[in-house]
Specification:
The chain has 2 domains: about 130 residues, Rossmann fold (3-Layer(aba) Sandwich); about 120 residues, Rossmann fold, CATH 3.40.50. It contains 12 helices and 11 strands. The chain is elongated, with a radius of gyration of 20 Å.
């Protein structure tokens, strides 16, 4: 079976021309909107500004929202500071982790954890878990989307909050196609969405929020076929409250397109 005219969204960047050809060859109507570009580790000014203050002792708590973000922040800082400097600094703070992934990183680094936030690990659980804490100079490690509710909740307690956005990937220079993809998604103009890497998801939701159509995009994705290239991308989709309808037998782009084409009609009909 083929896509047979289904409208297929891809957010692939580096291999955008290739995936467009693959979708078209399988009978789909592709719309490819590049969603990311690589940023060198050393080009993270916010991370280094944070490091200067961290090593000067300006924080008494750090909230780590993701394991991958914690590791990436460490990699960034190690381009300028000795290995282990970040972990050494964290040992002097009250460290708060959201969920098992940053907890595993702290165990690996032998950093004590003051607060482990329980599931479902939303901003509400973070605020509840830290409510009785005395610390008021707080750094929040972000990866992907910010959490304004968390930041506002902490500040409402009188905390001085510093966000530490960590990224290896940023939006493309030209975000016109991605904005168009978001508008079409919100209008229900796609049947299939294929995700080939995790970072595509927060970037899509970031633009959807900027366009004030995030709710419509989420609703549209629940009605469509959402295909993920593999477990890591699937986990990110689920962490963001989005469905995963299909994973290919091998986490490769070609398998993703070919096998999604075979199953898309069946999955779409099951959602109607």
């Amino acid at each position: 079976m083929q896509f047979d005219g289904l409208r297929v969204l891809s957010l692939e960047s580096r291999r955008s021309a290739e995936i467009e050809k693959l979708i078209r060859a399988r009978g789909g109507e592709p719309f490819v909107a590049p969603s990311m570009r690589e940023i060198p580790l050393q080009d993270n000014p916010e991370a280094f500004a944070f490091a200067t203050r961290l090593f000067a002792g300006e924080f008494d708590m750090m909230i780590l929202l993701t394991g991958v973000g914690s590791r990436l922040l460490n990699q960034i800082l190690e381009t300028r500071y000795p290995a282990g400097s970040f972990a050494d600094a964290l040992r002097k703070l009250a460290v708060v982790v959201r969920g098992s992934k940053p907890m595993a990183v702290m165990r690996e680094w032998d950093v004590p954890v003051a607060v482990s936030v329980p599931e479902p690990n939303t901003w509400r659980e973070i605020l509840a878990a830290t409510e009785a804490r005395p610390e008021r100079k707080i750094a929040v490690q972000e990866y992907g989307r910010s959490s304004p509710e968390l930041l506002e909740g902490l500040r409402a307690r009188g905390a001085q909050v510093t966000t530490v956005p960590v990224y290896q990937w940023d939006l493309p220079e030209d975000i016109g196609p991605l904005r168009e993809a978001v508008r079409r998604l919100a209008a229900g103009q796609f049947d299939v969405a294929m995700f080939t890497t995790s970072i595509q998801i927060p970037h899509l939701l970031r633009i959807a929020a900027e366009e004030s159509v995030e709710d419509q995009v989420r609703t549209a994705l629940r009605r469509m076929v959402v295909a993920s290239v593999g477990p890591t991308t699937s986990e990110t989709l689920r962490e963001n409250g989005l469905p995963v309808d299909f994973e290919p037998s091998h986490p490769k782009m070609g398998f993703l397109v070919n096998e999604t084409a075979q199953r898309a009609r069946e999955i779409l009909q099951s959602k109607q």
